[in-house]
Amino acid sequence: MKSELPCSVLSLSDLKQAVEEVLPTLTEQGVRVFILSEHCEVEGIESLSDKVQQASDQPLSPQLRANVNIKSPALYIYTSGTTGLPKAAVINHERLWISTFLQSIAAVRSDDVLFLCLPLYHTSGFLIGLCGAMEQGITVVLKRKFSASNFWNDCRKYNVTVIQYIGEIMRYLCNTPKRDNDKDHKVRLALGNGLRSDTWEDFLQRFGDICICECYGATEGNVGFVNYCGKVGAIGKEHFLHK
Questions:
Q1: Both ends of the chain: CA-CA distance in Å?
Q2: Which residues form the AMP-dependent synthetase/ligase domain (predicted)?
């Protein structure tokens, strides 16, 4: 059964082979498939980069999004598939919009520089990190992958003031060999989740007085917490409206 709404899939060029495996199903469902490349010789897959270069810089017609509302699907995020294969979680515009508020709650400023090395196919990196930065209008340093040995050198090089983490990143940083310039950086805020209390204390002792904004949430969860008080080991504090 074909979708009643126009639908398309965008893929990186290095995932072309994986896309080809499901291409018959996508074609049957009436889904247009694009790949980030200037050309593609596979029938049923369209190149996108060349079309972007040729596109007009004029504002799009409002009619293109006339049927889109805050409850409409904005994107899909594939969960880890604990009970089987990864499954697509539907993220609507409301959930995306709410996720971008976390940077504001954490007191991210317009002159901040965010260092982002988390994968963009997960909620933390894409919704909270990249989309949140767009909402705030701040500069983003986007790294292809996390490197514990080069992390602080990159922060110094790009004058980073805000970093985003998951718990293991902080532990990896604490496990690197100590250096005399460990506290020589401009990072003032760390935003993320999953930070153990012992690693939290070790991180602050080694890398300086950095405000840690620990939060809790899930891609398909219906509740979240934010530790805006900086209490070591806590995942958040109940809002007064919930009491």
A1: 47
A2: 19-226
Pick the CATH number of 96-242 from 3.40.50.12780, 3.40.50.10420, 3.30.70.890, 3.10.450.50: 3.40.50.12780
Give the residue ranges of DSSP H helices in 35-150.
49-54, 93-99, 101-105, 123, 132-136
Q: How far is 81 from 194, CA to CA, in rounded Å?
A: 19
Structure tokens of 54?
């040729």
**Side chain identity at 194, as an amino acid letter?**
G
Helix (H) or strand (E) holding 16: helix 16-28
Residue 150 · residue 173 · CB < 8 Å: no
> Contact, 120 vs 134, CB < 8 A?
no
Domain boundaries, the chain: 1-58, 96-242
Q: Which two tokens stand for residue 65?
A: 């999004």
Cα→Cα distances 197→145, 193, 209, 218, Å: 25, 12, 16, 20
